[in-house]
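Working notes for the structural subgroup meeting. M.R. asked for a predicted model of this chain before we commit to crystallization trials. I am recording the input and output together here so anyone reviewing the notebook later can reproduce the run.

Input as submitted:
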Amino acid sequence: MAKLLDFIKKFTLRRQEEALSASDVERLRAAFKARYHNFKLLLSANNKALEIMADIEQALGGGRPFGMSFVRSNCTAASVNVYRIIQNLDQLAAGKYTDLYDSFKEIQDQINRVLSQRRETRSGDLIVPFDSVSTDLTDQVGSKMANVGEVRNKLRLRVPNGFVISASAYERFFRHNDLQAEIDRLLQASSMDQIDQLYALSTDIQQRIVHSSVPADLERAILEAYWELESRNGEGVKVSMRSSALGEDVEGTSFAGQYRSELNVSADNLIQAYKDIVASKYNLQAITYRLNRGILDEDIAMCVGCMVMVNAVAGGVMYSRNPLNIRDDSIYLSSVWGLPKSVVDGSVASDLFVVSRSPSMAIAKKDVKTKEFKFVCYPEEGVCRMDVTGDKSRLPSLTDDQILELARIAVEIEKYYGAPQDIEWAVDEEGEIYILQSRPLQQRAVEASTAKAVENGIAEDAIILRGGATASPGVAHGSVFVVRKNSDALLFPDGAVLVASQALPRWAALLSRASAVITEQGSVAGHLANVAREFGVPALFGVVGVGEALSNGMEVTVDADGMSIYEGRVEELLASSMGRKNLMEGSPVYDILKEVSRFVIPLNLLDPDGSDFKPGNCRSLHDITRFCHEKSVKEMFNFGKEHHFSERASKQLVYDVPMQWWFINLDDGFREDVPGRFVHLDNIVCIPMLALWEGIVAVPWGGPPPVDARGFMSVLLQATTNPDLDPSMPSHYTSRNYFMVSKNFCSLNSRFGFHFSTIETLVGERPGENYISFTFKGGAADYSRRLRRAQFVAGILEEYGFRAEIKEDGVFARMEGYDEAFMKERLKILGYLIIHTRQLDMVMSNDTAYNEHRAKLLNDIATAVCGRSGVGSDANAGQQ
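Returned structure, recorded in token form:
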């Protein structure tokens, strides 16, 4: 009876232990899943935050244009992801790092301070007459009209009468219709990288402006100013209406041809023309221009100049110096019959006259073109194109006296401003010369090396076409893309050579993506040429036959300096070309991003073991990501140390090896649930564990190395004095070899003889989430031999790219951020090492044995473990 009761008691206790073990396993799994979930969320947010920081750094490096929507959206995204990182670390290590929230708030306040800076609302008259305009009113009338006022009122040169609809009027119009808030919303929601989205955005915003109403007080002010103009110049006088946006026509940002002008406008259409010009602030080329130049949308108020229309018999543009050669002080005049419109938009071949300054002003060159048509004013309103017939089409559009008088005016304006000038002019029916606008001239120097290359006959046989005029210097290579209509712009590929029949201003929207520009018609004085020079894009205009000679997809090299187009890629020319400048640098948007990046990008916390590695020392979002990343790895990889299980809760591996291996499935580490207490290797799907196992069984262990007398005595002494080495005593050195596994995670705690090692690793498809943490310590020899054994193991690990640190007789190694294949191979190496470094501490005092064992292990790793011939490592292979 007593035996029966004893059996029942033992059976009951065993069932209770099994039930307790099963409960422990479920708690262990729940703890792992929660920790693993937060760890993966933290890593995902960390990777996203680092990607955003890399995008910001790339933008600051000049890799691409960007606007304020880029700045705001990336700062917001970085902050959101960093806050998620903090939250997930808080879940991993509840209450340990709450100071991070305070650091984050301080950094976020600094970012918001930079982004929330707003310019003050302008105040002033809605209308400013030309008689009152000067550069002192630039912020009210825009640079273009301010310069016109200076020429008229300070230099006393002939400028048509007129007035300016001011920046205050623009803001009055926008406030009346609440347009700015809606435009900001549309800009923020749109992708600035896709030209089709930009095109749709441009159309949407322009339509909203055009269909908005002009407030009654502004409409009345515009009409009253026109009636005053009519009283001075005759009833029914027509006007030209020109954009004069703030920032337009200043040095470095001409906005040449980016906005709209309306010519020969009657009183009936003044208000509609005004809205059309304001709306042109958002045409495709203007949006793209501002984006490439880093100009804030809200900084651009569209002023509009209204001046009496000059019904020109001849007109054009003159440069007070050579725009392509800073050392050439000659005056360059481009001229056509009729209105100067066909010079600035590049639609007509124009005459070129060059006037030298010394020893006295004289005409140095005349290049008279055949001018087949001209633009003239309709009697009622608007302009029309008329054919130029007979001999007149081949006659010079200016007399010698007019050429010299224009040159004199150019020198006078240049002297007044103290810098080279780009001047638009017109000659009326009485022969009077009118100045229509003047702006700083962009000058560039021609690279002598490219001209020399051509002189030497490099790639002479590959020339497809030669001729034309250098509109913007430089050499570039790319595939030809011919544009004929607006819809072609949507298909224009990055880095292509833009080929067009005319040098129209609308093609400026493509300059940030074009490697070069070639046109069959067009003037170096036109708007497209101006913008090409600003952007540093080589441009060759007036190349006869280019439409027939070049077709889509042809690979060409454009030498704008040598006025030649070559087939294929000509390395000799490209090697001498200048790199494209960073147009964004120094712009308002660039400066804002640079300022805000001080609180995003810098990394001040460098040493995780340093005394300053604390939440309170985080001064940037990058600091927080670094701190959280380091601590999250520590918290996650302490799982195996903080959570233990009994043999009853685990499965023993069935495998023909002398050691015992135990497993607990934390999540999805087994192919299927396993009844009973044994698990077979083919039922384990844990990626890092299987890699470790390949290394463990790669080379059979040959037993302990031969021990000399001193080594033997050292082991004997340690075994009798160190209680950790007594299997009968409670010690972490007497733990079984056990794995905790999921599909991508593995925690291994193992003991081989007197040596204890732990490996915690996460390996999967995303390199940024992959880690290996390895600890190796213990041993039976004296301290000096154990220390040398630690140096031995650390040295081999460093051969294969691990960051290894020695603390006393222990090795602590880590690796992260590599792809799955690379990490699996490193785990195989670790599996091999934990088997084959057993008892090596006993022979560490012998240099010969030390070197022999090192050579053997490296050879085994290279051949049997990694499957390569010869000894060596590839520590950098596979890095992401």
